Amino acid sequence: MTDHIDTNGRVLVGYDGTSAAHHAVLWAAEEAVHRQQPLVVLMAHDILPTGTVRSGAAAAASVAVPTIQEADRARLDALEVELGGSCLDLDMSTEYVVGPAAPHLLARTAEPGLVVLGGRSRGLLGTSILGGVADAVVTGARGPVAIVPECDAAGDTVVVGIDDDGASAAALRYAYAEAQATGTSLELLHCVDLHPEVPTTNALAVAPPAGQDVVGVAREDLHGVVATVRRWGDVEVTGRVELAPSHRALVAASGVARLVVVGTRGRGNLAGLVLGSTSRQLVRSARGPVVVVPPVEE
C-alpha cells in the first residue's frame, strides 16, 4: 500500500469561539497526533461584513474593531494554553485573519493535509455561521474536509462508502490510510436500494435492473474489492452490503463508527464539487465525524 498519510501536511481547523468549533478543535488535535502532523487553528472574523455598517455608525464600529480583535486573540491564546496543557504530544500554532471564514478555509484545502470544521452551530451573535461555512468549504474543496458534529465518535472502525463508477477510489485510499494511522479496522459499505422512491444518479445506491440478482452481484463485486484492499497492508478490512438508501445507511454508520469517509463526483461547471444527495445529506445529518474526499486532480 503506497497511499499513506503525508506527514509533511497539516491538520487545519476552523474556530469561531462556539462550543461546536471547540469540539472540532479537540477532535482535530487528536487527529493531528495520529497523523504525526502539526495542528493549525484558524480563526477568521468578518468584523465589518458588507452592508452591516449603517450611515453614522462607521466611526463607532471602527472603534470597536480593536476590542473585537483583542477578544478573538484572547480566545485563541486560551485555546493554545488548554491544548498545551493536555497530554497530547502536539505541535500547534494559531492564525487570525479579518474577513469571511469560507474563502480563507477554502483556499487552504489546496494544501497537503486535512481541513476540519465543526457541524452546524449558533455563532457568537446567535446566528448560524459555521453551517454555511461548512457547506461552502465542502462544496468547493480541493482536498479532504472533515465535518465534526458536537458529539463523540462512538466506535473504533473507519467506514467508507463504495460505489460502482470509481468516484469512491480516492475516499477508499484515504480511509485505508486513516485506519492504518489510527490502528483501527476498515469497513467497506456498499448500498443497494431495492425500492428507490425517486430516480437517482447516486452511484452509491444501485437501482436493480429487472431480472437480475443485484444483491448477489453487489456482494460478489464487494468481495473482490475487499480482497484487493486486504493486500495493501495489515489493516483489518471487512465489507458489507446494506439493503437501504445510501444516505440512510451512512448516517446510521456515522453513529457507531470512529469515522465515515465518502467521495465526491468531481467538479461541476462552476468549479464546485458535485456532492450528490448522499454526501450532502450525510454531511448535514451525521452523528459522528465525516470526511469528504474529492477525486485526485490530474
UniProtKB/TrEMBL annotation:
<dbReference type="InterPro" id="IPR006015">
    <property type="entry name" value="Universal_stress_UspA"/>
</dbReference>
<dbReference type="InterPro" id="IPR014729">
    <property type="entry name" value="Rossmann-like_a/b/a_fold"/>
</dbReference>
<feature type="domain" description="UspA">
    <location>
        <begin position="157"/>
        <end position="294"/>
    </location>
</feature>
<dbReference type="InterPro" id="IPR006016">
    <property type="entry name" value="UspA"/>
</dbReference>
<comment type="similarity">
    <text>Belongs to the universal stress protein A family.</text>
</comment>
<feature type="domain" description="UspA">
    <location>
        <begin position="9"/>
        <end position="149"/>
    </location>
</feature>
<dbReference type="Pfam" id="PF00582">
    <property type="entry name" value="Usp"/>
</dbReference>
<protein>
    <recommendedName>
        <fullName>UspA domain-containing protein</fullName>
    </recommendedName>
</protein>
